[in-house]
Amino acid sequence: MGADDLDWKGWLVIAGLIVAFLIMGADKVGPDIVFSVLLTFYVACGVLTVNQAAAGYANSGLLTVIFLYLVSEGIYQTGGLESLVIRLLGRSRSPWWALVRMMIPAMVLSAFLNNTPVVALLTPILISWARRSGVPVKKLLMPLSIAAVLGGTCTLIGTSTNLVISGAQATWYEKLKKFENVKFRIFDIAPYGVPYAIWGFLFVIMTQRWLLPGNSSRFARDLLLAMRVRRGSASAGKTVLDAKLCSLHGARLLGIFRGGAWIW
């Protein structure tokens, strides 16, 4: 199928996707809002019917991801995950050994809890642990994401992509009446995912010294944060001294942006 075979609906879909990616690239609007508006736009233009637009929300893979978020949040709220992770991490001032002790639990958890919520749950735990151990956070956050992706490729429920593909496969083979191929079991991709995960783990460990930031000093200031003071806040309308922003514990105020200009 070439460009000449596309009708106005096809070109509209392509244009809509390009605009959506540009908006998300600007990091001003969340992907959920962008794609919800885009889906509504396609329905309004007649590209999709209401039933077709709503069909994705009934996908078994999507529903499984939603329930896995609830499971992960339940585990996190009990406090058991934090204590388990900190015990596994122990204490280490070596970035290399810290990576090893961080990536292995993250990969295992991501294989059974879905990698997206695992990253969200482990990030604050990992930042706190790194500061206590004297290891640069820069050395750990990107490998955390990589470890979650690698672990997610080992099982069916490890990543949202696998679940969506599984749902699409089931629908496709049911239409073809090839019912023996419908089921996608949890460890069907493990023979391919596990070697891939091991190789990715070894690559990160062997190249972390050159490819990851944070080599200059273990105790370098590693995070630059921007915070917004909302109306009604205890610090709103006060000077830096009155708001006690000159004596922040473990942080230093670099500047204040107010009224469209830097005043500090």
UniProtKB/TrEMBL annotation:
Subcellular location: Membrane
Residues that span the membrane, as ranges: 6-26, 33-54, 66-90, 102-129, 141-165, 186-206
Superkingdom field: Eukaryota
Primary location: membrane
Domain Citrate transporter-like: 21-215
Lipoprotein found in the keyword field: no
Identification of the protein by name: Citrate transporter-like domain-containing protein
Taxonomic source organism: Haematococcus lacustris (Green alga)
